[in-house]
Design brief:
With 197 residues, this protein is of the alpha+beta class. It has one domain: 2-Layer Sandwich (Yope Regulator, Chain: A), CATH 3.30.1460. It contains 4 helices and 7 strands; from the N terminus they run αβββββαββαα. Strands 1, 2, 3, 4, 5, 6 and 7 form a 7-stranded antiparallel sheet that branches. The termini are far apart.
């Protein structure tokens, strides 16, 4: 039992992803925007639906004659070593950098949860890797992975620390009146110290 192309389309529709279908192959193509760029992604079935692949199209290019080719190859190897599922590759004939994620289906169907997990792992990796590789192509120097706090601030639009200096109680939480403790609280209990980490 392998994955059918109609089932693949159903998985995409369940995520409300608008896609195009290749007229002569079981391939679905769609675009997604991230923090650092817009990406074209194809999802294809091979070997009679036993092999499923997510793959970028026109992601980045680094010709063999590029002065920073060595630095880019080091980044691709580093990312490949540190990430699961997602694989970076370089086509020496045209310089295209391709990112893919593969799954052998073989004797079962892909569930919606499995499909979602593949896409949710694939997309952030290509988005974060894009900025890192692009900077290295331009400068010859690897900026390294971005700090998670910086990324969180970028996503949420915050400019300062992610934890407010003073936590405010929930509106439904009972409050102390005139310095008295609420019933059931021990007079010896101390307030917990909250520090930003």
């Amino acid at each position: 039992m392998a994955l059918t192309f109609s089932r693949l389309q159903e998985l995409l529709r369940n995520l409300n992803i608008a896609y195009f279908i290749a007229p002569d192959h079981p391939v679905a193509r769609f675009g997604m925007s991230g923090m650092f760029g817009r990406y074209e992604i194809v999802i294809l079935l091979q070997d009679d639906g036993k092999f499923l692949q997510f793959r970028t199209v026109d992601y980045l290019h680094c010709p063999a004659s590029h002065p920073h080719l060595s630095a880019v190859m080091q980044i691709l190897a580093t990312i490949n070593f540190s990430k699961r599922l997602v694989r970076y590759a370089w086509n020496g004939s045209d310089g295209e950098i391709v990112v893919s994620a593969d799954a052998w289906v073989m004797d079962n169907q892909v569930t919606q949860e499995q499909f979602n997990r593949m896409l949710n792992n694939f997309f952030p990796v290509i988005d974060l890797g894009y900025q890192r590789i692009k900077t290295t192509l331009e400068t010859g120097s690897d900026p390294g992975e971005q700090d998670p706090q910086t990324l969180l601030a970028k996503v949420t639009g915050e400019r300062g620390p992610t934890m407010p200096p003073q936590l405010k109680p929930h509106p439904d939480q009972p409050q102390e009146k005139d310095g008295d403790k609420l019933s059931g609280e021990s007079a010896t209990e101390s307030e917990p110290e909250i520090t930003e980490i």
